[in-house]
Task: inverse folding
């Protein structure tokens, strides 16, 4: 958490905290209006989720509940959103959306891919989207599991974990395939042989659904689902035995769940995604408001990543 706030703080106070211009290519007025509604709707959904899982339960019980701890951890997963571009550009965002660039080059120590700060992370979609969607996915899968357990009480731990990862992969894939068609973001750095709609601007790499939804969100779902008779997750076990105030224990529980979720997300999503980013096929043709000057590869620093294209390094 300290590292994340250091990077975000360096970005906000640094010279790269500025909007990425969309370039020469334009979009229709109707699409502008749709994007406006989408940004308002996603932000509103984040506020509603915060009220449901964090604020209202805290006011009612005077403590952060298990759902609230998962909500805090899930919401901050947005920090890792741009990380698939760490070694090589593989993610585009639409710069017609409100943005101030990204917390990458100049803020993230050791960042490698060029012009990473030009990725226009949509402030009213990326951050509130993670705040609402990650926790919602986990809660939805937990709800499905309870229904399945009631129908098939003989389900064991291994079968349940398998259903969690399968469910996470399917749910995330459905959501992302729908969102990609709206043009708010794109996965140009996909391996076409393992992608849906390969070669199209809305192609969807199946490894994204498996690593993000199945393993990343799935690990958070499993942590939240498998709680003991006290309602405690694996990350919190033993905190009751510590000699500290109840308030201190509440904070420690929150940090424990946060650290568990983010460490697993780093290991299961961010790190393996670097291999896929480094092995991308040639990019489809994208408009300027998606490329945003991020294709600075090759001998003349004017190409997108792909086979045989030299990658600049510091």
Result:
């Amino acid at each position: 958490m300290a590292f994340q706030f250091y990077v975000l703080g360096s970005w906000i106070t640094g010279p790269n905290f500025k909007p990425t211009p969309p370039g020469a290519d334009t979009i229709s007025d109707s699409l502008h209006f749709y994007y406006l509604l989408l940004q308002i709707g996603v932000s509103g959904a984040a506020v509603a989720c915060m009220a449901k899982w964090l604020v209202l339960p805290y006011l009612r019980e005077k403590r952060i509940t298990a759902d609230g701890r998962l909500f805090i951890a899930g919401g901050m997963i947005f920090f890792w959103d741009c990380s698939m571009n760490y070694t090589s550009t593989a993610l585009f965002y639409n710069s017609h959306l409100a943005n101030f660039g990204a917390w990458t080059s100049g803020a993230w120590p050791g960042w490698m891919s060029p012009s990473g700060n030009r990725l226009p992370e949509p402030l009213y979609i990326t951050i509130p989207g993670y705040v609402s969607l990650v926790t919602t996915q986990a809660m939805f899968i937990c709800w499905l599991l309870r229904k399945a357990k009631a129908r098939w009480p003989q389900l064991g731990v291994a079968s349940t974990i398998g259903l969690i990862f399968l469910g996470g992969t399917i749910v995330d894939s459905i959501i992302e395939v729908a969102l990609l068609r709206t043009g708010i973001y794109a996965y140009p750095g996909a391996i076409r042989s393992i992608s849906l709609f390969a070669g199209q601007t809305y192609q969807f790499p199946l490894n994204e659904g498996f690593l993000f939804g199945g393993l990343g969100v799935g690990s958070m779902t499993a942590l939240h689902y498998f709680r003991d008779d006290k309602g405690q997750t694996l990350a919190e076990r033993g905190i009751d035995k510590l000699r500290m105030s109840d308030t201190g224990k509440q904070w420690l529980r929150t940090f424990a769940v946060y650290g568990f979720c983010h460490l697993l997300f780093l290991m299961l999503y961010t790190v393996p995604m670097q291999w896929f980013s480094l092995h991308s096929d040639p990019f489809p043709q994208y408009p300027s408001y998606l490329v945003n000057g991020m294709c600075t590869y090759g001998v003349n620093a004017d190409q997108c990543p792909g086979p045989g294209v030299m990658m600049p390094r510091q």
User: Anything to note?
Assistant: The chain is about 50% helix and 5% strand. The radius of gyration is 20 Å. The mean pLDDT is 93. The CA atoms of residues 281 and 306 lie 5 Å apart.
